[in-house]
Design a protein that fits this description.
The complex is a heterodimer of chains A (158) and B (791). Chain A is α+β, with helices and mostly antiparallel strands. Chain A contains two helices and eleven strands. In chain B, 57% of the residues are buried. The chains are: A alpha+beta (158), B mainly alpha (791).
Chain lengths: 158, 791
């Protein structure tokens, strides 16, 4: 019947999809090379049974330079320590987060901070707070019966 | 007069016995399909119930552990027991042999066994209820939250289901290779057969990841053996690597069969051939390949290196291309066609629009920085329901309505079918579109309550619950439609839709032997009925004397039951316990009965010619072995990672090398002896064959004896609860020992077949498959000796 017409369509379509693949490849390659990502990293390993007994600094925020802070956070069932942190607009903060029990999430809503807190690892993640306001810290990884109560906050003032 | 010709109604027990012992691919397909869709219904009700809880943050309907158990069971049931099964094992079992022009699948008894093992794995999850706990750690059961009794039942169920699905997949591949009607080349297969083929291969290649993750976690619960426990240097991230190595590819196992179904439906109802057939096949195989390379996009927030993240972002975005090709192919098939707006086609149209949204949000999630906004939020929930409910789910319903007349010989009610569609479409839109917004607002998954001070959470959640209620109404209409149509729907003609693939050549429902006619060996395209009609080919009646069907057998269901008892023992009590021992013993009894039974009335009927010239057992086993290689490869990769990163350090006092080398000698010799014995069988030298086989078995037993001695000795000076290396040693070497035991059992079955004169040179029975397995186990051992004893 009109089998040949369909085959011509098919050929055309295959050429078109091949061209599409090439265009996509170029786009993705350009995107990946043209922009720098800041990704969370696993800073170091730690024995989770020793997190509370001196293996990890006591939860606190310390100033390491003008407008630069380091925060040591323990995410445990079912709270963050410290549960509330205060910064000023423009502060650059590096968070070191670990867990003594199961895994948790450390997600600061409205920022690009979202890292899994794996027992046995210290997660390191960095951000600069650009807008004032109250940011919720949310545990995104299911961690047990109190998962939905595991909330903290970061207050950023002018 | 009609009453005289009617066959007397069979008693209930006779019918039950018939279904329990059936090896007919159509009945097994119906069992699979029915089980899958019933699971869908029940699991949907569970979802509606927890949506009711979420209608208000102060809700007290289902909270805490109850809520967590509900979401876990909902996810597990929908994924493992519905969406993977309906399109692949359900419709696949029924339709694929028909589309190929075959009388049954390649390994009918294995097929029956697969179904029963699948059913028992559902029961195993539920069995946790009687021990006080359902799994509650989410269907993803991340380590270490999943170290619980309820999860142990879940692990046990997944391991049993793994056996079932690997056998099922190997069976499909063997069927497609061996049982196509002569003349039907691979490029002449209907697109649905291709998609079952692709999904089966993908599952065979990737399932090892899930098996490894569940096995190691189960061993941690029961014995304290672990590769993940950070307290002894293990790495919980390794769990995620194992888990997602399977669980991402599997979403394509969940999708591919449905893409095939949707294309078939589109082609039939547009009255046009499939558009871009070859492009579609390439796209499918491309999805199989790329699907294996994207798993870590579930782990962007774990803290892996930038280059690692970029690579996986790249492949994830890339996989949108073959998926897009498939979508365009469906559009191209519909384009310019005379669309017949019947229920199956409505699902196709619903699929196109909604799956597109799911695909695009998938690409959004692949962009690493954006993913940090969405990870584990409701955005992700919306995304995967988008692709699974409005994607695969709609495909499942398209298939159900499309093949309903063929399955049951009755038409469904068209109006109710459409009503069902519209309720599901709007139910889906109302339930899941608000969840994208919930994700933006920061609502995480697996919450039974949420903070009221965040504006928008309350109304959006209520909208979502309203949508779930529409789903419930649609579900009731669907259930009513199914029940009423099964009881009193009008009789279906053989080809109600004017389809052109071979299943429409059979009666509705098909007779046990499928085809009355002798199929021509002439195939021009994937639409043989169209081509034959164009050529004016007359189909001749097949001579009934040439039709041979496998006999019903109760061994598959008995063996599956015994295996269920074994896995129940694994989950329910500490090891070892009498339940698992009894289960294992009964399983062996079942296998012996199975091996000694003739598959066909007359054994010579089993000697079918196959398209490839290889036996079904050989084909099936070769593909099954790819998954075994995968399992050892993934566990050894985990061990290598822990060893090279300096965490798994061998203790000074290791199991002795010389003993392992003695064992190597026995195992390697047994492989050679077995090889020569098989040669003796081919030459017809029976007594020398039997002697060789016996020697191979004895060598295997010596190996096991030496290994047991070594383990007992090693357990005295190595503690697997504290030393990571010891854990890895007992895990991998022990698992290999289990494989030697299974292999020796297989060889023993072949030996028994020899004793009872069931093995003939042309008909090697269990021997072929068992020796392939044995040689593989042997090869794996050489790697293990190198990595655990020499290095």
């Amino acid at each position: 019947m009109n089998k040949h017409v369909i085959e011509a369509y098919e050929r055309g379509w295959m050429l078109f999809s091949l061209a599409m693949i090439l265009v996509f490849l170029v786009f993705i390659g350009y995107t990946l090379s043209g922009f720098a990502f800041y990704v969370p990293t696993a800073a170091e390993r730690i024995d989770p049974t020793k997190v509370r007994t001196g293996g990890f600094p006591a939860p606190h925020v310390e100033k390491v330079g003008p407008g630069k802070y380091q925060a040591y956070v323990i995410a445990q069932a079912f709270t963050f320590l410290p549960n509330e942190m205060h910064f000023k607009v423009g502060d650059e903060v590096t968070f070191y987060v670990t867990s003594p029990d199961v895994q948790h999430g450390f997600y600061v809503h409205g920022t690009d901070i979202n890292v899994q807190v794996i027992p046995g690892e210290i997660a390191k993640v960095k951000t600069k707070f650009k807008r004032p306001g109250t940011y919720m810290i949310i545990c995104t990884e299911y961690c047990g019966i109190g998962h939905q109560n595991m909330l903290g906050k970061i207050v950023v003032e002018e | 007069m009609a009453t005289l010709t009617r066959t007397p109604a069979r008693s209930f027990s006779a019918t039950l016995w018939d279904w329990l012992t059936t090896v007919d691919h159509k009945k097994i397909g119906i069992l699979y399909t029915a089980t899958a869709f019933i699971t869908f219904g029940l699991s949907g009700i569970v979802a509606w119930l927890f949506r009711l809880q979420l209608a208000h943050p102060t809700g007290r309907l289902f909270t805490g552990d109850t809520f967590n158990q509900m979401i876990t069971v909902h996810g597990a049931a929908m994924l493992f027991f519905f969406i993977i099964q309906a399109g692949l094992t359900g419709f696949g079992n029924f339709v694929v042999p028909l589309m190929l022009g075959a009388r049954d699948v390649a390994l009918p008894r294995i097929n029956a066994f697969s179904y029963w093992a699948f059913l028992f794995s559902i029961l195993l999850v539920i069995a946790g209820l009687f021990f006080g706990q359902l799994p509650e750690a989410g269907w993803t059961f991340y380590y270490p939250v999943s170290l619980s009794l309820g999860s142990a039942f879940y692990f046990s169920a997944i391991l049993l289901l793994g056996i079932s699905s690997l056998l099922g997949n190997a069976n499909f591949v063997a069927t497609i290779y061996n049982l196509r009607r002569r003349g039907m080349g691979l490029w002449r297969m209907p697109i649905y057969v291709w998609s079952v083929f692709a999904a089966s291969i993908l599952n065979l290649l990737s399932l090892a990841g899930l098996t490894a993750a569940t096995l190691v976690t189960l061993l941690d619960v029961k014995l304290g053996i672990s590769l993940f426990n950070p307290a002894m240097g293990g790495d919980p991230v390794l769990f995620q690597q194992f888990f997602w190595f399977y669980s991402h590819p599997t979403v394509y196992v969940m999708l591919l069969p449905y893409l095939g179904i949707l294309v078939e439906v589109a082609s039939t109802f547009a009255k046009k051939p499939v558009f871009g057939y070859r492009a579609m096949v390439y796209a499918q195989m491309g999805i199989v390949l790329l699907g294996l390379l994207v798993w870590a996009h579930h782990m962007f927030t774990v803290g892996e290196s930038t280059i690692f993240q970029l690579a996986f972002a790249f492949f994830t975005a890339l996989i949108a291309v073959p998926t897009g090709v498939k979508l365009f192919n469906i559009l191209g098939t519909l384009w310019g066609g005379k669309l017949e707006m019947k229920t199956p086609l409505l699902w196709v149209l619903g699929f196109i629009f909604n799956f597109l949204i799911g695909g695009i949000t998938g690409v959004m999630l692949s962009m690493v920085p954006l993913d940090y906004q969405f990870h584990d939020s409701y955005f992700v929930v919306a995304h995967f329901h988008n692709v699974l409910m409005a994607g695969s789910g709609f495909g499942a319903f398209a298939g159900l309505y499309y093949w309903f007349p063929k399955f049951f010989g009755r038409m469904y009610h068209e109006r109710l079918g459409r009503l069902h569609f519209w309720f599901f479409l709007f139910g889906y839109l109302f339930t899941f579109l608000p969840q994208y917004a919930l994700g933006f607002l920061g609502m995480p998954r697996r919450y039974f309550t949420y903070p009221t001070e965040v504006a928008g959470l309350l109304p959006l959640n209520q909208l979502s619950t309203f949508g779930a209620t529409l789903f419930m109404i649609g579900g009731l209409i669907w259930a009513w439609n199914m029940i009423a149509s099964l009881r009193s729907g009008p009789k279906a003609p053989a080809n109600p839709w004017g389809g052109w693939t071979l299943e429409w050549l059979t009666a509705s429902p098909p007779k046990p032997h499928n085809f009355d006619v002798r199929l021509p060996e002439h195939f021009e395209s994937e639409r043989p009925l169209f081509d034959w009609e164009q050529k004016g080919l007359e189909l001749e009646e097949e001579d009934p004397a040439r039709i041979h069907l496998p006999r019903s057998s109760y061994w598959p269901v008995l063996t599956a039951t015994a295996l269920f008892v074994f896995f129940l023992g694994l989950a329910g009590w500490s090891w070892p316990n009498p339940v698992m021992l009894v289960g294992a013993l009964l399983t062996v009894v079942g296998l012996v009965g199975w091996a000694l039974e003739h598959e066909y009335e007359h054994p010579e009927h089993a000697l079918h010619e196959t398209l490839t010239g290889k036996s079904h057992a050989f084909m099936g086993m070769i593909w099954f072995l790819t998954s075994e290689i995968g399992l050892f490869a993934i566990l050894l990769a985990g061990y290598l990672y822990l060893r090279l990163s300096g965490h798994a350090v061998p203790p000074p006092e290791r199991p002795e090398l010389w003993l392992a080398l003695v064992n190597t000698f026995f195992l390697v010799s047994s492989s050679f002896v077995l090889h020569f014995a098989a040669g003796d069988l081919k030459r017809g030298n029976r007594s020398s064959f039997m002697l060789g086989l016996l020697v191979a078995i004895v060598f295997g037993l010596v190996f096991l004896g030496v290994q047991s001695y070594e383990f007992v000795k090693a357990a005295h000076h190595m503690n697997w609860r504290e030393q990571l290396w010891a854990s890895a040693f007992f895990l991998v070497v022990g698992l290999h020992g289990l494989h030697v035991l299974i292999g020796a059992t297989g060889l023993t079955l072949a030996y028994l077949q020899g004793v009872f004169r069931r093995i003939l040179p042309q008909q090697p029975g269990t021997l072929e498959a068992a020796s392939l397995y044995w040689h593989l186990v042997d090869g794996v051992w050489l790697v293990i000796v190198t990595l655990f004893y020499i290095w």
